[in-house]
Design a protein that fits this description.
By secondary structure, the protein is mostly helical. The protein contains seven helices and no strands. The radius of gyration is 22 Å and the shape is elongated.
């Protein structure tokens, strides 16, 4: 973390510590916010708690942006509520990308390499790379369906490669900002 925050108690940079503690608070508050609808059927209670948490998220994003040395925007609390702490950490420059983005882009790179090679053993290896992502998005499910057609001899490897490269282009566009 490039930002520097010092205190009279400690003679080292506290910015990372401050961001970490505020991020833990944000994660717990996001979980609480998501559970409110489940634990209360009284709309007035839900509304009161949501309104109270809204103010907390507003101030919490100010603390997080300060600790990160990033510019704060009025919309950051809404951004946190809609996207979570990891996306906010990307926005504030704490991390370069989300774990989801990293996982998907690693798959795209590996898949493109495998598609350059022969059907065997690359079909099997591609299937193994695809397994943890299959349920993430319909595009991964489409690759899975196409792989099954290759396995069953209903689709040639060459046609599969062409279709899958197009799907990978779509995945890159879809996950570019995630």
């Amino acid at each position: 973390m490039e930002n520097k925050i010092f205190s009279d108690q400690f003679n080292y940079n506290m910015a990372g510590w401050l961001y970490e503690k505020a991020e833990f608070c944000a994660k717990d508050l996001l979980r609480l916010n998501a559970e409110i609808d489940e634990i209360s059927e009284i709309d007035d209670v839900k509304s009161f708690v949501h309104d109270s948490l809204s103010g907390v998220f507003f101030d919490l994003t100010k603390i997080l942006s300060f600790a990160a040395g990033s510019d704060w925007e009025v919309s950051d609390s809404e951004f946190l509520l809609n996207n979570g702490t990891e996306r906010l950490a990307v926005k504030y420059g704490i991390i370069p990308e989300t774990s989801e983005h990293s996982e998907v882009m690693n798959f795209v790179v590996n898949a493109r390499e495998l598609l350059k090679g022969a059907r065997s053993p690359n079909r099997t290896i591609l299937y193994d790379f695809l397994e943890p992502l299959k349920d993430k998005d319909f595009l991964f499910q489409e690759i899975d369906r196409e792989l099954e057609l290759v396995r069953d001899g209903q689709l040639s490897w060459e046609k599969f490669v062409s279709k899958t490269n197009q799907i990978l282009d779509d995945i890159e566009r879809l996950y570019k900002d995630k």
